[in-house]
Amino acid sequence: MSVKPRVPRRLIAAGFVALALAMSSCAPPPAPAGAETNAAAEATDPNAVLRYIYPNAPGTMDPHVVNTAFANVPLFLIFDRLVHVDPDGNPIPGLAESWEYSKDGKTLTLKLRKDVTFHDGDAFNAEAVKANIEHGQNVEASFVKTDLASITDVVVVDEHTVELKMDNPDVGMVLKLSDRAGAMISPKSMKSDNINVHPVGAGMYEMDGDYQTGVKFAVKKYEGYWDPEAQGLAGIEMSFMADTTAILNAVKSGSADAGAVREPEIDGAKAAGLNVVEGYDLGFGNLLMNPDEVPALKDERVRLAVNLAIDRQEIVDGVLFGYGKVTNQPFPEGYFAHSDKAENYAYDPKRAKELLAEAGYPDGFEWKITNVPGPGSRISEALAAQLAEVGIKVQVEQTEAAALTAAYSDGTAHTLNVRWTGRPDPTSTLALIFMPGGSNNPSNMASKRAIELFERQKVEVDPQKRAELLAQLSDELVEHPPASNVVLFQSMTAIAAKPEVVGLDGYMTGKVEFRGVGMTK
């Protein structure tokens, strides 16, 4: 059985609604979490514990430090955010009941929920928000500081009101606060080394024992949670397994109730009678490149040659079993930041060879591409075979997910073949990958026009005008291939689950949330 989520039926509508809500004077009224997805609530077992397997293990449980957005799936069980998102990607109330921008767009006022406590019993209030924003901006190795960079001051107005002062209007801030930048940690636990294995948040579930790093952890229902209708389970046991074929086998055998799978496993899951939640999202398969380690990539002609030497359709059909969409820009068709003008690169190895020769590399060059085990290996091998046809000699290496980013940062890995998991607002993806200073743009290379368009869209409060600027930026990234990235295909989120698991929904962000998820008796 295939369960089609609402992701992303009308991405363009969702995008504009998100923008309009972000700039509005008040967030929409809170709706009962799981109202649509938990239709079988009366038949669910309140004592059920869901066994879920996920391929991406976080290296730390500190949401402000963890170096991958894949970690949102386990961490958002424990940490509530100031803003939540619905499956279509629109901002909805979280720990902030409402928000309002000032007329000049430089102050964002958040009205906070009352009577909310962290798992350690401490009150959630404006002081806690201030402590968290400053922690995200200043903690060593922060991976959310880019999202919070425009905030110059956090003003506590009263116990349940906080003002975020910004140096310039930042129309993406509301949606940024729905990501890890808005995850609220108990201030008392924030500076403890224990946060890496026993985090304390204000979310639906609290830790039940310590995290066995890279292996598993367990959570139990937090009795003091502000939205009890979101808690359909007594607890969740989450384990980690990089091999998604092994995840599928575990669900088929009954040793797990549900798990995240990739495109090659979807047909097998359906054939086994499992429910499959599948849908395209804001993520994409890509190569994250470090031209400081591979100097040939600093030449735009070489980067264009690489793009023309890759047969994306062959990868989608042969490696992803047709579950993917060919693209060479970071935002999908129908989404408000997508360019309808830019065309996909044609597969043209002959022209690729000519460009390499023009750039001074008639015999190609050596290139090391690193991925985690699983489908990434098959994609890398396909890329290596295609690039070899134009003289580029690729060495494929594997490493575990927890070590991947560190290898990229220290130069051990020249290029990563990874899935980018989409971000709630386009600014975050653009800043992290394509702009100078981004954690995934180590060479700090970007065209002047790309930088100009990026800065203009950040402060444009009119949704239509902002969308036009973002589309122009997508055009620029296709016309002048960036030094940091090669987009390969639009990604898909897929979860295989036993029929007893109800309430699972796909999210445009690509990261499933467990609000309203339960199990039948």
TrEMBL record:
Primary location group: other
Protein name: ABC transporter substrate-binding protein
Species of origin: Arthrobacter hankyongi
Record-linked SUPFAM superfamilies: Periplasmic binding protein-like II
Solute-binding protein family domain boundaries: 91-438
Annotated keywords: Signal, Transport
Signal peptide: 1-33
PROSITE patterns referenced in this protein's UniProt entry, alphabetically: PROKAR_LIPOPROTEIN
Record-linked InterPro entries: Peptide/Ni-bd, SBP_5, SBP_5_dom
Domain of life per record: Bacteria
Protein family per UniProt: Belongs to the bacterial solute-binding protein 5 family.
Pfam family, one: SBP_bac_5
Localisation per UniProt entry: Cell envelope
